Amino acid sequence: MKGFRAALGDAISCSEEYKNDVYRFSEDAGLGRKTIYNILRDTRLDESKTGPGIFGMARAAALLNTTLDALTTERKLPKVETATKSIKPLATHTLETLISQVEADENRLSVDALLRTYAKSGGRIEAFVPWLDRCDQYHPPNARSKRLECKEVGQQSLAAITMRCADKDVLQEAVDTLEDRELADKWRRDYAKASKLGTLTTIENLSIQMPNQPVKVRMEFLRCLLHVEDAEGTKTILNFSLLIV
């Protein structure tokens, strides 16, 4: 079964209907909601001589307009024109990253601009309204917190671009199921530290399987955490991240 998981992941990525929703694809194929997701993550299948159930995989292949033969033969599936559409948001993000690194413009979103805004506003979230679509929002962890809790995903944040959707439930599951538990603990400590210090800027390396994506995401990015509050005293941690290119 070597190559099957990669071929299945490629086929899902090429599907206009299912590329952003592995869960719905799994259900439409008559399988459990997380069956396909688990298959894509199960490295044991690479050495398995039996693999997943043939009838379920046949239904899955039919939904993707391919065949079991194509999925089990070690050859690449043809690329589709729609792949360009999914790359465009990431390309735009990368371009903005490069520009922000060479231009000192207060009106252009960058870590420097965010830190200046934080200092000038005294950490009020109202000052960040123009940029909230680029930031993810988290609940500040307390001493008893054993997990990070996502409040909202910015429509144009790095997480939204990576997940191809701004769904906080998808991001929450990705954080909760992070295989690198040392990294998960570090992140929780970082957010707790940001709650005390007000701001925290770090460089992060990430390798993660997004719950709604068939491929594994690997990236290096600059992350700025900002502990803010609104007029009613509700506290939030903003996460602004930029790819390092």
TrEMBL record:
Recorded protein name is HTH cro/C1-type domain-containing protein
